[in-house]
Design brief:
Glycg_phsphrylas, 3 domains, glycogen phosphorylase activity, cytoplasm, Rossmann fold, Pyridoxal_P_attach_site, 35 helices, about 850 residues, about 50% helix, binds ligand 26W, 24 strands, six-stranded parallel β-sheet
C-alpha cells in the first residue's frame, strides 16, 4: 500500500477497508512489554530520552527514577487493561471500598516485586551504573492517611488484587497528605507535605469521569397529576469531582485493580464576567473554594474537630463514588438498578463515608425514581460498615443544623430513615430510653446526627476489626442495635499484606525462608509455618538472627545519619512506633525508661541488658497531651544519651516523621515490639502484626489483635501483662486513683518525681501528664506499671539466652500467617460481600 493511502486510511475513521487500497492494514496494536532486562534497559533509556527529554549522560537521579517508573508502569498497564476487559466479560461482583484515607506509601518497589521484575530491573540499570535501591528511596510517600485505618485500606486494596477480587478503592486525592513532622527543640513542628510537587507518574487523570456534587440550596416538592409527589434538591453550590486512577498491582500481576481518587474542581475555572469587569481576584474565588475541598487531609485520628470542611469532604467523595458506581451499573446491566446488590458491594471504612447511606437513597428515589421501600432494601444489601474505634471522642456526629444547611435533602432522608427504624423498634417492644439509644439523632448535647448509627442501619453487615473489639462493640456503642439486629455484627480480624510487610521490607528474611523451605510461601503465606520446626535448629536460628542483625545495622545507620546518635546494633532494639495517643501509652514506656535509667545507675551490680528504646509517631496538631509525650521522649533521649554512666546499657531514640517508608525500615529491625495500649481501647492494631511477622517478640496487653496473636503464636512466645479490658472498665467505674499505687512503688514514684522535678526539662513541664496518674489514672499507667516493669525484666533475662530468644523469634515469624490481609479479605468476600475470588 502506498504511504499516501495508508495515511488516508489512518486519518479517516469511517473509511471502509476497501477504500484504502487493495490490501487491508490492521489497525496497529501496541506490543505488550517484555520482562527481560535487555528490553527494560532499552525502554528505560527511551523513556529518559523521549518522555523526560534527558540524555543518559546528564540525567539526574530523579530523572532515572521517573524513567524506571514509566517503564514499569507500561507493564502494569498491560495487566491493567487485561484485568479490565476480564471484568467486563465475567460480570463478576465488584467490591467498592470507600475510604477517606489510603496510606499507600511508595509504589515502585511494590510494583517491581509484585510483577517479579526485581532482577530484570536491577540488571537493566546496572548497564547505566544506576542503583535501583537508591532510586526507590527518592520516591515520595503517598501519605493520604493518618494511621491504622488508612494503612489497612492500602493493605486491603493490594490483597483484593492479589486474591483475585474485582476491587475498587474510592477515596480523596488530597493535594497535601499527612503533615511532615520535624522535631525542633524537642517538640513536634508540623510542616506541609507536598507529594505532588514533582508530578505523580502513577496516576491517570480521567477528565471524562467527572460528576457534579451539590451543597446547600433547597428541596422542592414536585407534584404531577397521577404520580406521587417527588422531592428535588436544587443545590446552591455545585462543584465537579474529577477521577484520578492509580493501578493497584496484585501478586504476580495476575490482577490489577483501580484506586480511584476524586479531586475537586470548579465548574467554571474562572468567572469571566467578574474578570472582565476588573474583579480579578473575585473571578477566581469560586475555583479556590471548590478546590479547597481536596486540598488537605485532616491530621486527627482520635478527636472529631467537627469542621464544616470535613463534612464537605465526606459528602464530596461519597457522592462522586456512588454516582460512578450507579453509572457503571446502569451501563453494564441494561439500566436495571434492582440488580445493584447482586453486582456491587460497598464497604464503608468507618463512618467517614456514612453519609453515603442517605445519598444512595436520594440517588435511587429522587434521581432514578425507585420507590422508597425498594431503595431501602437495595441500600441495605449493598452497604456494609467497618468500625475501627470505640473511643467516644472519635465517634463522628454532626450538628443537625450544619447538616441541614449543607445537605438539606440528605437530612430529610435521615429523618425518614430514623422514623422507620424507631417504628420497627417500638413494634418489637423497645421502650423510651432504649429508643433514644437507637435514634439517629442524639438529643443530648445539642442535636447531632450519629454517623455510626446511620452506617449501622443502612448496612446488612457491621464488623469490628478484632475478636475483642467486636465483642466490645456489641456490649457498648452498638448495644441496643445489637439487641434489635443480633445477626448483623460480625468480626473480621485485621491483617497486613505479606508482600509489603515481608517480601519488600525484609529481603534478607525472604531469601532465608526461601532457602529453607522453597518459594511457595510467597504465593501462599500460610506455608511460612514450614520454618516452625527450624526454630530448634541452631544453624537456622543463627542465620535468622544474622538477618535481624543486618537489618538492625541498617537502622542504626539511619539513626546515626538523621540524629547523630550512635547505637549498638547488638543491643536489644525495643520499639514503639505508631500514632501518639494517651491510650497507646507511650507515656508508660517512657516512665519505664526513666525508671530503668534510675535503676541502672543505683544498681550497677545487676546484669542489666543493653537496650535501645526507639520511638516514632505523630501527634494530632491540636492534641496537647500527645505533643507533651513527644516532647518528653525527646527530653528523656537528650539526657540519657548524654550520660556516660549508662552509655552501653541504655539509649533512647525518637525518629522524626514516622511514615510507611520509615516503618518498612524499622519493622524488620526490631527485637521487641511494644503493644501496650490500655486494654479495651486499641481496636486491633496492625503494627503488632508487622513486627511479629518480621520476628520481633511482643510485649503487650490483652487488647485488640494481641489477644488472637497470643492464640496463634502461643503463650511461650509473647509477653502479655496488665489489666484486662473488663478489669479496666471496673477500675474506671470505681474511680480509683493512682496515688496509692504510686506511693507503694518506690521505682514508679522515683521515675515520676524525676519527670516532674525537672530532670528532663523545666520543672513542671510534664505536670499535666504526671498529675493524671495521681488522679483517676484514666489510662491505667500507674495500675499497669508494676506488671509492665516485671515483664520487661523477664525479657532482660531472656535476652541473655540468645538461643531461647532466637527460638521464640523464629516461632513468631512462622506463626503469623493467619494475620495476612489475604485471609481477612477472603473472609470479607465470603461472609459479607458474597464476591468471588480468583476472577
Ligand atoms: C474523626 C477523626 C477520626 C479519624 C480517624 C477518628 C477515628 C479515625 C480512625 C478510625 C482511627 C484509626 O485509624 N483506627 C485504627 O484502625 C486500625 C485499623 O482497623 C486499627 O488497627 C487500630 O487499632 C485503630 O486505632
Amino acid at each position: 500500500m502506498s504511504s499516501a493511502a495508508e495515511k488516508s486510511r489512518r486519518n479517516s475513521e469511517t473509511a471502509a477497508p476497501e477504500d484504502a487500497g487493495d490490501v487491508a492494514v490492521a489497525a496497529p496494536k501496541p506490543t505488550p512489554r517484555r520482562n527481560d532486562s535487555a528490553s527494560l534497559a532499552k525502554e528505560i533509556a527511551e523513556k529518559l530520552t523521549y518522555a523526560i527529554g534527558k540524555d543518559p549522560a546528564t540525567a539526574r537521579r530523579h530523572d532515572w527514577l521517573e524513567a524506571v517508573t514509566l517503564a514499569v508502569r507500561d507493564r502494569i498497564v498491560d495487566h491493567w487493561l487485561a484485568s479490565n476487559s476480564r471484568n467486563v466479560q465475567s460480570g463478576a461482583k465488584r467490591v467498592c471500598y470507600l475510604s477517606m484515607e489510603f496510606l499507600i506509601g511508595r509504589l515502585l518497589r511494590d510494583a517491581i516485586i509484585n510483577l517479579g521484575l526485581s532482577e530484570a530491573v536491577r540488571d537493566a540499570l546496572s548497564a547505566y551504573d544506576v542503583d535501583i535501591d537508591l532510586l526507590e528511596t527518592l520516591e515520595p510517600d503517598a501519605a493520604l492517611g493518618n494511621g491504622g485505618l488508612g494503612r489497612l485500606a492500602a493493605c486491603f486494596a493490594e490483597s483484593m488484587a492479589s486474591v483475585g477480587i474485582q476491587g475498587f478503592g474510592y477515596g480523596i486525592r488530597y493535594v497535601h497528605g499527612f503533615f511532615r513532622q520535624e522535631i525542633v527543640g524537642g517538640e513536634q513542628v508540623e510542616l506541609p507535605e507536598n507529594w505532588l510537587a514533582h508530578g505523580n507518574p502513577w496516576e491517570f487523570e480521567r477528565r471524562e469521569r467527572s460528576f457534579e456534587i451539590g451543597f446547600g440550596g433547597k428541596v422542592t416538592t414536585i407534584e404531577e397529576a397521577g404520580k406521587p409527589p417527588r422531592q428535588v434538591w436544587r443545590p446552591a453550590e455545585r462543584i465537579l469531582a474529577v477521577a484520578y486512577d492509580t493501578p493497584v498491582v496484585g501478586w504476580k500481576g495476575t490482577r490489577v485493580n483501580t484506586l480511584r481518587l476524586w479531586s475537586a474542581q470548579a465548574l467554571d475555572p474562572i468567572l469571566l464576567d467578574a474578570f472582565n469587569s476588573g474583579d480579578h481576584i473575585g473571578a477566581l474565588l469560586e475555583a479556590n473554594r471548590a478546590q479547597s475541598i481536596t486540598q488537605v487531609l485532616y491530621p486527627a485520628d482520635s478527636h472529631l474537630a467537627g469542621q464544616e470542611l470535613r463534612l464537605r469532604q465526606e459528602f464530596f467523595f461519597s457522592s462522586a463514588s456512588l454516582q460512578d458506581i450507579i453509572r457503571h451499573h446502569l451501563k453494564r446491566n441494561g439500566g436495571d438498578l434492582s440488580t445493584l446488590p447482586d453486582k456491587v458491594s460497598i464497604q464503608l471504612n468507618d463512618t467517614h463515608p456514612a453519609v453515603s447511606v442517605a445519598e444512595m437513597m436520594r440517588l435511587l428515589v429522587d434521581v432514578h425514581g425507585l420507590g422508597w421501600d425498594e431503595s431501602w432494601d437495595i441500600t441495605k444489601r449493598v452497604f456494609s460498615y467497618t468500625n475501627h474505634t470505640l473511643l467516644p471522642e472519635a465517634l463522628e456526629t454532626w450538628p443537625v443544623n450544619l447538616f441541614e444547611r449543607l445537605l438539606p435533602r440528605q437530612m430529610q432522608i435521615i429523618y425518614a430513615i430514623n422514623a422507620q427504624i424507631i417504628r420497627e423498634a417500638t413494634q418489637k417492644g423497645l421502650d423510651g430510653a432504649k429508643v433514644s439509644a437507637i435514634s439517629l439523632i442524639d438529643e443530648g448535647s445539642g442535636r447531632r446526627v450519629r454517623m455510626g448509627s446511620l452506617a449501622f442501619v443502612g448496612s446488612h453487615a457491621i464488623n469490628g476489626v478484632s475478636a475483642l473489639h467486636t465483642e466490645l462493640m456489641k456490649k457498648t456503642v452498638f448495644n441496643q442495635f445489637h439487641e434489635l439486629y443480633p445477626e448483623r455484627i460480625q468480626n473480621k480480624t485485621n491483617g497486613v499484606t505479606p508482600r509489603r510487610w515481608l517480601l519488600e521490607c525484609n529481603p534478607g528474611l525472604t531469601d532465608l525462608v526461601t532457602e529453607a523451605i522453597g518459594p511457595g510461601f510467597k504465593d501462599d503465606i500460610t506455608k511460612i509455618s514450614g520454618i516452625d520446626k527450624l526454630a530448634d535448629d541452631a544453624g537456622f536460628r543463627e542465620k535468622f538472627m544474622a538477618v535481624k542483625l543486618a537489618n538492625k545495622q541498617r537502622l542504626a545507620k539511619t539513626i546515626e545519619e538523621r540524629l547523630a546518635i550512635t547505637v549498638d546494633p547488638t543491643a536489644m532494639f525495643d520499639v514503639q512506633v505508631k500514632r501518639i495517643h494517651e491510650y497507646k501509652r507511650q507515656f508508660l514506656n517512657l516512665v519505664e525508661t526513666v525508671a530503668l535509667y534510675d535503676q541502672i545507675r543505683s544498681h550497677p551490680e545487676i546484669a542489666w541488658q543493653p537496650r535501645v528504646k526507639i520511638f516514632a509517631g505523630k501527634a494530632a496538631p491540636s492534641y496537647a497531651n500527645a505533643k507533651q509525650i513527644i516532647h518528653l521522649a525527646n527530653d528523656v533521649a537528650r539526657v540519657i544519651n548524654a550520660d556516660p554512666s549508662v552509655q552501653n546499657l541504655l539509649k533512647v531514640v525518637f525518629l522524626p516523621n514516622y511514615n510507611v517508608s520509615l516503618a518498612e525500615l524499622i519493622m524488620p529491625a526490631a527485637d521487641l515490639s511494644e503493644q501496650i495500649s490500655t486494654a479495651g481501647l486499641e481496636a486491633s492494631g496492625t503494627g503488632n502484626m508487622k513486627f511479629a511477622l518480621n520476628g520481633a517478640l511482643t510485649i503487650g496487653t490483652l487488647d485488640g489483635a494481641n489477644v488472637e496473636m497470643l492464640e496463634h503464636i502461643g503463650e511461650d512466645n509473647i509477653f502479655i501483662f496488665g489489666l484486662t479490658a473488663a478489669e479496666v472498665a471496673a477500675r474506671r467505674a470505681e474511680g480509683q486513683s493512682g496515688r496509692e499505687i504510686i506511693d507503694a512503688s518506690p521505682i514508679l514514684k522515683g521515675a515520676l518525681d524525676s519527670i516532674s522535678h525537672g530532670v528532663f526539662g523545666e520543672p513542671g513541664r510534664y505536670n499535666n501528664l504526671v498529675d493524671n496518674l495521681y488522679g483517676n489514672d484514666w489510662w491505667m499507667i500507674a495500675a499497669d506499671f508494676e506488671a509492665y516493669w516485671q515483664t520487661q525484666r523477664r525479657l532482660d533475662a531472656l535476652w541473655q539466652d540468645s538461643d531461647a530468644w532466637g527460638t521464640k523469634a523464629v516461632r513468631n515469624t512462622a506463626r503469623m500467617a493467619w494475620f495476612s490481609s489475604d485471609r481477612s479479605i477472603r473472609e470479607y468476600a465470603k461472609d459479607i460481600w458474597d464476591a468471588p475470588t480468583s476472577v
